[in-house]
């Protein structure tokens, strides 16, 4: 049964359609793998009974020749997506015990297409973090380790549970969300593929909000093809989300093998940041050479406002978080800590329910939105955001089809390694990814090599609005040249 967990999503889909194994068999194999991998803490909630019921229903549909695009495929769901009848916590104590009576649009579309839910995946609290160490349910451990070392590594964040579960062969793919890099950074850290689609491509309805103008759902999977298959099911217009784009969803899977001949790929000079490791620089150059060899034209481009992106992001995102998280007060759902009056109940509930990083960002956001500081900080950050978007528009107006950059400034670091660092040092993990969210563009991270310790490194491709197809084509070319990333040995089993 273990060989079933080593299949790619595409291989499993084809095997299920060919009746080479049943949905229940592949689901049971993943349930067994999850039980053996609890040391990774990738799941907040396991749902084996729900999974088996869904798998049996899939087998019935497959037998009748009525299987959907994901029929019988076992997936993990980031615990930021509301799931009807299953607890949704957003990785926070303040939502412990919250069981939605409704389903998020993204997950409902996955179930519509026949996917099977294995459980809810761990994450940084309210998706605020770059290492999956801020979860109220404990940190997630990466399935990767440095050769000869037993030291635990972080899987990245906030979608660390999703990335760890996919890399550890606990699910064939996972939903994730990206506000400033929370799909692409953990994908790069774990040797998986993660795509943050264009803002509006996937509905945000039923996804617990962090920063509403930046949040976007997307998949993490083991191959570019697998990510393309998942995104097609996840994407689509949703009238319940006013930011959802009414644009047709193309066949992303068909684009993977399209090739890059004739494409113009930009290399932004501003992404050569001070102190960037030589191995990241070498990988970046190698990625450009692979694309050139595959028929693309490589050109240097300029994105002059890039160095303002990180500080502007850490004004806009906390401001929106401060507003969004005001709804958690202990009155209607989740944790309630009694007080002598309603004000004290609010104070005690929020003090006990929110973790340190969430409180920090709420306070920053409240400050920049306060009278006297709104124009000085928030308004200026939004103006910078416009300049960042115009930088990309100017590059694409020159005929550039996609932009190639590193995905992260380093490989994964050790668990608790950044505990004594300042929050700003942790925030620097997002230096290559936040521009994509600020501009609302699509971005994909694809495994492209390893560092000197043998840990995965990823390359990022940034595309034009709603042109994920070109990203899949270019990512497919990099994956073909680099070879599919090897999965880590199952030391946890």
Q: What topology emerges from the helices and strands here?
A:
Blueprint: H1 2-5, H2 9-17, H3 23-36, E1 43-46, H4 48-63, E2 74-78, H5 105-112, E3 116-121, H6 160-167, E4 173-178, H7 184-190, E5 193-196, E6 216-221, H8 224-234, H9 252-256, E7 264-268, H10 278-293, E8 297-301, H11 309-324, H12 342-353, H13 356-369, H14 374-397, E9 402-406, H15 423-427, H16 434-439, E10 443-450, E11 456-463, H17 468-482
Parallel strand pairs: 2-3, 7-8, 7-9
Antiparallel strand pairs: 1-3, 4-6, 5-6, 5-10, 9-11, 10-11
List its traits:
493 residues; Amidase signature (AS) enzymes; 17 helices; globular; three-stranded mixed β-sheet; alpha/beta; 11 strands; eight-stranded mixed β-sheet
What does this structure look like?
It is a single chain. With 493 residues, the protein is α/β, with parallel strands linked by helices. It folds into three domains: 2-263 and 408-482, Alpha-Beta Complex (Amidase signature (AS) enzymes); 264-305 and 388-397, no CATH class; 307-381, no CATH class. Helix content is 39%, strand content 13%. The protein has 17 helices and eleven strands. It has helices at 2-5, 9-17, 23-36, 48-63, 105-112, 160-167, 184-190, 224-234, 252-256, 278-293, 309-324, 342-353, 356-369, 374-397, 423-427, 434-439, 468-482, and strands spanning 43-46, 74-78, 116-121, 173-178, 193-196, 216-221, 264-268, 297-301, 402-406, 443-450, 456-463. The model has no long low-confidence stretch (mean pLDDT 95).
């Amino acid at each position: 049964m273990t060989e079933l967990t080593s299949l790619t999503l595409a291989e499993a889909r084809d095997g299920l359609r060919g009746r080479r194994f049943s949905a229940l068999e592949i689901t049971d194999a993943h349930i067994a793998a999850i039980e053996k991998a609890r040391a990774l803490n990738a799941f907040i909630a396991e749902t084996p009974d729900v999974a088996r019921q869904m798998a049996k229903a899939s087998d019935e549909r497959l037998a009748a020749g009525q299987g959907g695009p994901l029929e019988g495929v076992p997936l993990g769901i980031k615990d930021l997506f509301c799931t009807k009848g299953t607890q949704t916590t957003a990785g926070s104590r303040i939502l412990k015990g919250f069981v939605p009576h409704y389903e998020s649009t993204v997950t409902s579309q996955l179930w519509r297409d026949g996917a099977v839910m294995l459980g809810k995946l761990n994450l940084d609290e309210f998706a605020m973090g770059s290492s999956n160490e801020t979860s109220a349910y404990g940190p997630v451990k990466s399935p990767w380790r440095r050769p000869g070392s037993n030291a635990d590594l972080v899987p990245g964040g906030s979608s660390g549970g999703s990335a760890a579960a996919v890399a550890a062969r606990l699910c064939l793919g996972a939903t994730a969300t990206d506000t400033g890099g929370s799909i692409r950074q953990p994908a790069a850290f774990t040797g998986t593929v993660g795509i943050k689609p264009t803002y509006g491509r996937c509905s945000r309805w039923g996804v617990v909000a962090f920063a509403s103008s930046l949040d976007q759902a997307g998949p993490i999977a083991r191959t570019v093809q697998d990510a393309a298959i998942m995104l097609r099911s996840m994407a689509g217009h949703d009238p319940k989300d006013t930011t959802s784009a009414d644009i047709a969803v193309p066949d992303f899977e068909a684009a993977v093998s399209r090739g890059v001949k004739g494409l113009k790929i930009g290399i932004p000079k501003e992404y050569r940041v001070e102190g960037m490791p030589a191995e990241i620089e070498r990988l970046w150059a190698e990625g450009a050479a692979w694309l050139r060899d595959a028929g693309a034209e490589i050109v240097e481009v300029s994105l002059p406002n890039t160095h303002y992106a990180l500080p502007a992001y850490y004004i806009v995102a906390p401001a929106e978080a401060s507003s969004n998280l005001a709804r958690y007060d202990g009155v209607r759902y989740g944790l309630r800590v009694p007080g002598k009056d309603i004000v004290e109940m609010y104070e005690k509930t929020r003090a006990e329910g929110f973790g340190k990083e969430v409180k920090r960002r709420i306070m920053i956001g409240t400050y920049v939105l306060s009278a006297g500081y709104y124009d000085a900080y928030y308004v200026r950050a939004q103006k910078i955001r416009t300049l960042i978007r115009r930088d990309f528009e100017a590059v694409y107006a020159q005929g550039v089809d996609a932009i190639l950059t590193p995905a992260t400034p380093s490989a994964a670091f050790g668990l608790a390694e950044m505990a004594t660092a300042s929050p700003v040092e942790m925030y620097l993990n997002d230096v290559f990814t936040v521009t994509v969210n600020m501009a609302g563009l699509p971005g994909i991270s694809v495994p492209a090599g390893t560092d000197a310790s043998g840990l995965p490194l990823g390359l990022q491709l940034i595309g034009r609005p709603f042109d994920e197809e070109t990203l899949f084509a270019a990512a497919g070319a990099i994956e073909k040249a680099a070879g599919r990333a090897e999965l880590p040995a199952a030391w946890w089993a």
